[in-house]
Amino acid sequence: RVGRQSPRQGGVWGRFDGVSGEYAFLGGYGFMEGLRIKASAGELTDYSDDNQPNFTAASWERGMFSGYYVNQELEGYLDRRAVGGEFRYFKKGVTAYTQVEYDTYFDELNTILFSGTLDIGGDTTLSLLADHRRAPTLSMRNALFSSTTSSLDLLMQSMTSEELRALAKAR
Asked: How confident is the model at residue 141 (pLDDT cuts 50, 70, 90)?
């Protein structure tokens, strides 16, 4: 597909203009059976300023499990680099969904989420939601919040990359 793409696919957190493709091993055997591999690249469009991050991402999905890798840049600087995965389980009376994302650039956990329900009979259903996320998601762009500039390049003129990353993490 080419053009405007929907948000939240394979670690990409927002609508984007770009390309995405998918290959499915429907007739394979062993681990390859039912495996879907996806790739995408583009520019995020959910930002009102002129600095829109570019990214490349790859993901896989097989049955209840999926995983992804995303690399995102802004103004030629690394903005975000993360790996993540999901587990989905749906059976009559029981559902479970888990998501984990780790940012390898910031060396921090971005998201860990568990949501589940259990139908214990009658009119009774037990639900559990455990959710720990960074808000906003770790990104070098966070250093621009409450800054006098909207450019990482300008901030880099007065800070080292380590200072800039610490500022982004603090925000």
From this structure: confident
Which pair of tokens denotes residue 105?
């650039």
Regarding pTM above 0.70, the answer is yes
Q: Is 70 helix (H, G, I), strand (E, B) or coil?
A: strand
Helix (H, G, I), strand (E, B) or coil at 140: helix
What is the secondary structure of 18-78 as a DSSP string? EEEEEEEESS--GGGTTEEEEEEEEEE---SSS---EEEEEEEEETTEEEEEEEEEETTEE
Indicate the pLDDT class of residue 94, thresholds 50, 70 and 90.
very high
Q: Mapping DSSP to helix (H, G, I), strand (E, B) and coil, where does residue 33 land?
A: coil
pLDDT tens digits along 22-57? 777 665 555 567 788 888 888 888 665 667 888 888
Place of tokens 């680099």: 81
Q: Are 133 and 72 in contact (CB under 8 A)?
A: no
* Integer Cα distance of 22 and 59 in angstroms: 9
